[in-house]
Amino acid sequence: MELETKRIRLRALEPNDLELLFQWENNMSIWESSNTITPFSKDLLEQYLGQAHQDIYTNKQLRLIIERKDDRRPLGTIDLFDFEPRHRRAGVGILIADEQDRKQGFAKEALAILKDYAINVLGLHQLHAHISEDNTESLGLFLNAGFIVIGTKKDWLQTGVTWKSQLFLQFIPNVHA
Predict the structure, then answer these.
(1) What is each CA distance from 135 to 44, 54, 74, 112, in whole angstroms?
(2) Tens digits of residue pLDDT in 115-151
(3) What's the distance, Cα to Cα, between the start and end of the chain in Å?
(4) pLDDT digits over 97-113, tens only?
(5) Per-state percent for the chain, helix, strand, coil, to nearest 5
(6) 4: DSSP letter
(7) Where are the domains of the chain?
(8) pLDDT above 70 covers what percent of the chain?
(9) Of 44, 49, 64, 71, which is least packed with CB atoms within 10 Å of its CB?
């Protein structure tokens, strides 16, 4: 199985991704979506990259770089996290880092590849995502990919002095299809 489409490929993290991850992880404009509240040091990210070669059964997570095939330019990341091998499920997160690359279909292609890999290679029974109720772009992406909203966590996320609810989405092949 190849983790690619005509336009993109999903690839493993490489040591030379350190600067890129440092830039993306410390971009405060995406912290709300990623539930991040503190910056990441290069040392911490270097340690993370040093363990990235371990499989999902060891790390309980998998992060892949979304890369354009034509010029090998990294577009963002896609993750499986909270991997539960006994229950055969994992969470999904996705980032298209630059505004100019959003709304181009890259996230849609990456999510389709990851779903296929998770179900047909890893043998997962289900995938889930947690998305702020006002993140309409991400909601549209996941809903169009066959995820359904199964619940709402009221006032789950604090942003400044206000609270936002978070939607819990789930994908189970042949159940929601």
Answers:
(1) 29, 32, 23, 20
(2) 999 999 999 999 999 999 999 999 999 999 999 999 9
(3) 22
(4) 999 999 999 999 999 99
(5) 35, 35, 30
(6) B
(7) 8-125
(8) 79
(9) 71
